[in-house]
Amino acid sequence: MNPARVVVMSRSRRVNPIYKTREWAELRVWAKTFLPWICHVCEEPIAPHLSGRHPRGWTLDHVLPVRTHPHLAYDKSNLKPAHSRCNGIRTATLVADMQRVKTSRRW
Q1: What is the reported pTM?
Q2: Cα–Cα distance between 9 and 72 in angstroms, integer?
Q3: Which of 13, 31, 37, 61 could form a disulfide with 82 if both were Cys (CB 3.0 to 4.6 A apart)?
Protein backbone atom coordinates (compact mmCIF):
# COMPACT_ATOMS: atom_id res chain seq x y z
CA MET A 1 0.00 0.00 0.00
CA ASN A 2 1.27 3.40 -0.92
CA PRO A 3 1.61 5.48 2.30
CA ALA A 4 0.73 8.65 0.40
CA ARG A 5 -2.72 7.19 -0.34
CA VAL A 6 -3.70 6.35 3.25
CA VAL A 7 -6.86 8.16 4.28
CA VAL A 8 -7.50 8.94 7.93
CA MET A 9 -11.16 8.52 8.81
CA SER A 10 -12.73 11.06 11.12
CA ARG A 11 -14.15 9.69 14.36
CA SER A 12 -16.75 12.43 14.58
CA ARG A 13 -20.36 11.53 13.99
CA ARG A 14 -22.68 13.28 11.60
CA VAL A 15 -24.28 16.35 13.19
CA ASN A 16 -27.90 17.22 12.51
CA PRO A 17 -28.01 20.56 10.62
CA ILE A 18 -30.44 22.09 13.14
CA TYR A 19 -27.57 22.36 15.64
CA LYS A 20 -25.77 24.80 13.34
CA THR A 21 -28.64 27.28 13.01
CA ARG A 22 -29.02 30.68 14.62
CA GLU A 23 -32.37 29.59 16.10
CA TRP A 24 -30.69 26.68 17.92
CA ALA A 25 -27.97 28.99 19.28
CA GLU A 26 -30.66 31.36 20.59
CA LEU A 27 -32.55 28.46 22.22
CA ARG A 28 -29.36 27.36 24.01
CA VAL A 29 -28.88 30.88 25.41
CA TRP A 30 -32.53 30.95 26.50
CA ALA A 31 -32.24 27.52 28.16
CA LYS A 32 -29.01 28.38 30.00
CA THR A 33 -30.64 31.56 31.30
CA PHE A 34 -34.13 30.38 32.24
CA LEU A 35 -34.08 26.60 32.82
CA PRO A 36 -32.77 25.07 36.07
CA TRP A 37 -29.30 23.53 35.89
CA ILE A 38 -30.60 20.10 36.93
CA CYS A 39 -30.23 17.09 34.64
CA HIS A 40 -33.69 15.88 33.69
CA VAL A 41 -32.41 12.31 33.30
CA CYS A 42 -30.51 11.66 36.57
CA GLU A 43 -31.90 14.69 38.49
CA GLU A 44 -28.40 15.70 39.66
CA PRO A 45 -27.09 19.29 39.43
CA ILE A 46 -25.08 20.33 36.39
CA ALA A 47 -21.82 22.17 37.16
CA PRO A 48 -21.75 25.50 35.28
CA HIS A 49 -17.94 25.58 35.03
CA LEU A 50 -17.72 22.34 32.98
CA SER A 51 -17.66 22.28 29.19
CA GLY A 52 -20.47 20.53 27.29
CA ARG A 53 -17.85 18.02 26.17
CA HIS A 54 -17.23 16.96 29.78
CA PRO A 55 -19.41 13.95 30.80
CA ARG A 56 -21.00 16.04 33.59
CA GLY A 57 -21.18 19.23 31.49
CA TRP A 58 -24.36 21.02 30.35
CA THR A 59 -26.17 20.02 27.17
CA LEU A 60 -29.64 20.79 25.89
CA ASP A 61 -31.59 17.59 25.33
CA HIS A 62 -34.66 16.94 23.21
CA VAL A 63 -37.13 15.00 25.38
CA LEU A 64 -38.73 13.57 22.24
CA PRO A 65 -35.87 12.87 19.80
CA VAL A 66 -35.49 14.97 16.66
CA ARG A 67 -35.03 11.76 14.70
CA THR A 68 -38.62 10.72 15.43
CA HIS A 69 -40.18 14.14 16.10
CA PRO A 70 -38.49 16.66 13.75
CA HIS A 71 -41.41 19.09 14.08
CA LEU A 72 -40.43 19.58 17.78
CA ALA A 73 -36.78 20.42 17.10
CA TYR A 74 -37.19 24.08 18.16
CA ASP A 75 -40.10 23.66 20.58
CA LYS A 76 -39.12 24.98 24.04
CA SER A 77 -41.43 22.51 25.76
CA ASN A 78 -39.41 19.65 24.24
CA LEU A 79 -36.04 20.91 25.55
CA LYS A 80 -34.51 20.11 28.94
CA PRO A 81 -30.98 20.43 30.37
CA ALA A 82 -28.97 17.22 30.77
CA HIS A 83 -25.44 16.10 31.53
CA SER A 84 -23.54 15.33 28.36
CA ARG A 85 -23.18 11.67 29.41
CA CYS A 86 -26.86 11.31 30.38
CA ASN A 87 -27.90 12.86 27.07
CA GLY A 88 -25.66 10.46 25.15
CA ILE A 89 -26.89 7.42 27.04
CA ARG A 90 -30.54 8.19 26.43
CA THR A 91 -30.20 9.25 22.80
CA ALA A 92 -33.40 8.36 20.95
CA THR A 93 -34.90 6.87 24.13
CA LEU A 94 -37.87 8.39 25.93
CA VAL A 95 -37.29 9.53 29.50
CA ALA A 96 -40.35 7.63 30.65
CA ASP A 97 -38.73 4.37 29.58
CA MET A 98 -35.58 5.15 31.58
CA GLN A 99 -37.56 6.11 34.68
CA ARG A 100 -39.51 2.88 34.51
CA VAL A 101 -36.24 0.91 34.57
CA LYS A 102 -34.67 3.19 37.20
CA THR A 103 -37.56 2.77 39.66
CA SER A 104 -37.94 -1.01 39.37
CA ARG A 105 -37.64 -3.09 42.53
CA ARG A 106 -34.55 -5.03 43.45
CA TRP A 107 -35.36 -8.60 44.39
Answers
A1: 0.69
A2: 33
A3: 61
